[in-house]
TrEMBL record:
Domain named ATP-grasp: residues: 107-313
NCBIfam families tied to this protein: purD
EC number: 6.3.4.13
SUPFAM superfamilies linked: Glutathione synthetase ATP-binding domain-like, PreATP-grasp domain, Rudiment single hybrid motif
Protein name as catalogued: Phosphoribosylamine--glycine ligase
EC class: ligase
This protein's UniProt keywords: ATP-binding, Ligase, Manganese, Metal-binding, Nucleotide-binding, Purine biosynthesis
Gene3D superfamilies: 3.40.50.20, ATP-grasp fold, A domain, ATP-grasp fold, B domain, Phosphoribosylglycinamide synthetase, C-terminal domain
MF terms in GO: ATP binding; metal ion binding; phosphoribosylamine-glycine ligase activity
Protein's gene: purD
PANTHER family cross-referenced by the UniProt entry: PHOSPHORIBOSYLAMINE--GLYCINE LIGASE, PHOSPHORIBOSYLAMINE--GLYCINE LIGASE, CHLOROPLASTIC
Pathway named in the protein's UniProt entry: Purine metabolism; IMP biosynthesis via de novo pathway; N(1)-(5-phospho-D-ribosyl)glycinamide from 5-phospho-alpha-D-ribose 1-diphosphate: step 2/2
Annotated organism of origin: Marvinbryantia formatexigens DSM 14469
ATP-binding recorded as keyword: yes
Length: 424
């Protein structure tokens, strides 16, 4: 098979690495890719939002399967463009990707189908939002309706903070058109857990659990980011919680989308909060998470190409999805100043230290190959991932591997997976 992967981050590197393990695959392309993905794929200079060019390339190269990694092209309708051209593509159509593309849509869907989530109100008028806040309980959560690179969520502890947040999202348009509408919802407390799943329109098969660390600084301080590190599995995601979620959240979401005429095929990422009242949905994503993918796929034993095809063909019920009985931790190496302002073009040293090291991986996020070698090319630069027999060992291995690599202004959190100490 020939496979095309669309995207350029750590998630797409992990997908390319996993696809390369399939004995069915002889050639991988990635558009646009990055310096790490080059190891497994021929990188093609086509942007993820250039749908017609991507489809033309897939036809020209006789691509058997295209995998869409990123949210923007999915919400923008890349799958519809590919299907119209008779091309096999993994990911939801635009009318299903709205599950991530509009938080107002997803909240209304959960309300209609009684899927547990936080109480909320939707607003498209900033004055109405401000008036509502006068009567609200704090802390409270403000969310830009559309895509915002994982950064469009503000947790506000006071009325003044919330008023400033409305201004940021709806008036100053810090997140662009994504802030034309806004969701205001109750603040939930508990453990956050991420559960990724494969969906074929009717059947859902969940992957192993993970937990992300969104804030830039140690101790969950600083600004929200795309994710500073993650671990898998979550020791807080018990068998009882899984059974509840399968019955009241996962399958009901798939059935709800089908009932709305929005058949979902691809990945549904469930962001959950384990509250005192039981698990509730924080958010949906319509694609693999980043950096959750970097800890989930190294633990996956099943051939991922088989699973992709089963989702497209509606035969997921026949797939046995298996994960290793181990653990994985990913620590993101960022450029100091992320997520606001940071330098690019800084040489990266030590990548060769990961060659032939079993259980240690370095997934490239923001990197670029130049004549001088591989340099930084983004805020999140690399995801250093390691496995171990349990979370403690995986965490020790990941932080050991962090020291194998260096670049000027290297920044990372020192407490990824610290929560596991509470249960060990």
């Amino acid at each position: 098979m020939k496979v095309l992967i669309v995207g350029s981050g750590g998630r797409e590197h992990a997908i390319a690495w996993k696809v390369a393990q399939s004995p069915r695959v002889e050639k991988i392309y990635c558009a646009p890719g990055n310096a790490g993905i080059e190891q497994y794929a021929e990188c093609v200079n086509i942007g993820a939002m250039e749908f017609e060019k991507l489809a033309a390339f897939a036809k020209e190269k006789e691509i058997d399967l295209t995998v869409i990694g990123m949210d923007d092209p999915l919400v923008g309708g890349v799958v519809d463009v590919f299907e119209k051209e008779g091309l096999r593509v993994f990911g939801p159509r635009a009318n299903a990707a709205i599950l991530e593309g509009s938080k107002a849509f997803s909240k209304d869907l959960m309300k209609k189908y009684h899927i547990p989530t936080a109480a909320y109100e939707n607003f498209d008028d900033p004055q109405a939002a401000l008036a509502y806040l006068e009567t609200a309980k704090f802390p409270i959560v403000l969310k830009a309706d559309g895509l915002a690179l994982g950064k469009g969520v503000l947790i506000c502890n006071t009325l003044e903070e919330a008023q400033a947040g409305v201004k940021t999202i709806m008036l100053d348009k810090q997140f662009g058109a994504s802030g034309n509408r806004m969701v205001i919802e109750e603040f939930m407390t508990g453990r956050e857990v991420s559960v990724l799943s494969f969906v074929d329109g009717k059947t859902i098969k969940t992957m192993t659990s993970a937990q992300d660390h969104k804030r830039a600084g140690d101790g969950d301080t600083g600004l929200n980011t795309g994710g500073m590190g993650t671990f898998s599995p979550s020791p807080f995601y018990t068998k009882e919680i899984d059974e509840f979620c399968q019955k009241y959240i996962y399958q009901p979401t798939v059935d709800a989308m089908a009932a709305e005429g929005r058949e979902f095929k691809g990945i549904i990422f469930f962001g959950l909060m384990l509250t005192a009242d039981g698990p509730k949905v924080l958010e949906y994503n319509a694609r693999f998470g980043d950096p959750e993918t970097q800890v989930v796929l190294p633990r996956m034993k099943t051939d991922i190409v088989d699973v992709f095809e089963a989702c497209i063909d509606g035969t997921l019920d026949k797939v046995n999805l298996e994960f290793a009985d181990n653990a994985a931790v990913c620590v993101v190496l960022a450029s100091d100043g992320y997520p606001v302002k940071y330098e690019k073009g800084l040489p990266i040293r030590g990548l060769e230290n990961f060659a032939d090291k079993d259980g240690y991986y370095v997934f490239h996020a923001g990197t670029k190959r130049t004549e001088a070698g591989i340099v930084t090319n983004g805020g999140r630069v690399l995801g250093v991932t390691a496995t171990g027999k349990d979370l403690k060992e995986a965490r020790a291995n990941a932080y050991e591997a962090v020291n194998w690599i260096d670049f000027d202004n290297k920044y990372y959190r020192h407490d990824i997976g610290k929560a596991i100490d509470e249960v060990s």
